[in-house]
Amino acid sequence: MNGFAGGLVFYNSYLPEIATEDMYDRISARGFAFGFIGSVLLLIVNLAMLLSPETFGLPAEDTLPARISFAMVGMWWIGFSQIPFRRLPKDEPVGSDKLSTMARQGWKEIKKVWGDVKNHDQIKRFLFSFFCYSMGVQTILYVAAIFAEKELSFATDELIYLILVLQVVGIAGAYFFAWVSDKKGNVYSLISMLIIWTVICILAYIVQDKQPFYFVAALVGLVMGGIQSLSRSTYSKLLPEDTPDTTSYFSFYDVLEKSAIVLGSFSFGLAELITGDIRNSILVLGSFFVISVIALLQLKVKHVDVK
Q1: Spatial distance between the Cα atoms of 227 and 257, rounded to a whole number of angstroms
Q2: CB-CB contact of 281 with 269 (8 Å)
Q3: Given this model, what pLDDT does residue 290 score?
Q4: Distance CA 72, CA 146 (A)
Q5: What is d(CA 107, CA 252) in angstroms, rounded to the nearest whole number?
Q6: Is pLDDT of 10 > 70?
Q7: Inter-CA distances, 58 with 64, 65, 74, 229, Å
């Protein structure tokens, strides 16, 4: 997981390198949609293997199907990683290859980006909003299965189906909100999704049965890919023109997101500890979305007509 999380920095920073500004939203959405499609395909195969191992000639009372599934995930990553390795623009290494030196250089780059960001009010406003709603979004994605299992008694196979719903709806959601952004702009699209996220928190607080929770999961899927893809493309549009090193800016972006995950998870756990009810923790996450909407109301992102 650490390797995957670290790779996202470079994955995100390639967006301004491979697309023109009028295509940021669409290309970003396509990237997330393809990711969801890939995860759905592999999930279906692994799910079939786990639920009916004899179909694949595997023993039913054994951990072999699960172990094969993990191996397939690794092979899936290795195989599809060859595409960016071979097709994305090459760059040249800069600086020392010593780990300690690279760590110091990385910290210096983050500080440098913060120094630049402080002089751009619109970037600061977006990043503040991004930090707040990331506390909600990322925490919900991490604890959704825990909530479903603890509060609604979902079994393991039901949780897998729940994840499948999230991924399938996420494909449509990423494209849909890219289309909304093309028509109405990034700010309108982001605020629309944050309102839906707030509604999700309210519904999760009141839902008592499994069937309605599948609807809540579908709503999460609808805005899950959209909020991530539009966040990336919006940030790309706000970067200073002719930025030579987008990786440093996206490193800062990623550090902010990871910090939001830590603080969001802490807030979620603390709310449950204090109140004794995990549902109250969901309402705390909902408040982060409300703060984010307020911050975005003053954000100005130039609208670029899609060619």
Answers
A1: 13
A2: yes
A3: 95
A4: 25
A5: 10
A6: no
A7: 7, 7, 20, 39
At CB < 8 A and 24+ separation, what contacts does 66-72 make?
A: 72/42, 72/45, 72/46
Digit-coded pLDDT (tens) for 111-157: 777 667 777 888 889 999 999 999 999 899 888 888 888 888 888 77
Whether the Cβ atoms of residue 226 and residue 178 lie closer than 8 Å to each other? yes
Output the pLDDT for position 187: 92
- The answer to whether 220 and 145 have CB atoms below 8 angstroms apart is no
| Residue whose structure tokens are 């700010």 | 187
Residue with tokens 């969801």: 36
CA angle 139, 149, 171 (to 5 degrees): 55
The tokens describing 28, both together, are 């970003």
H helices, E strands: number in the chain: 11, 0
The residues spanned by each domain of the chain are 100-296
pTM of the model: 0.80
Mean pLDDT of 70-88: 86
d(CA 85, CA 234): 26
Q: Which CATH superfamily is domain 100-296 in?
A: MFS general substrate transporter like domains (1.20.1250.20)
pLDDT at residue number 62: 76
Can you tell me the distance from the alpha carbon of 255 to that of 276, in angstroms, rounded to the nearest whole number?
A: 31
Amino acid identity for residue 114 in this structure: W
Judge whether 136 and 289 are in contact, CB under 8 Å.
yes
What pLDDT score does 303 carry? 55
For 126, counting Cβ atoms within 10 Å of its Cβ (0-12 exposed, 13-18 middle, 19+ buried), the class is buried
Residue 46: pLDDT over 90: no
Distance CA 187, CA 294 (A): 11
pLDDT value for 99? 47
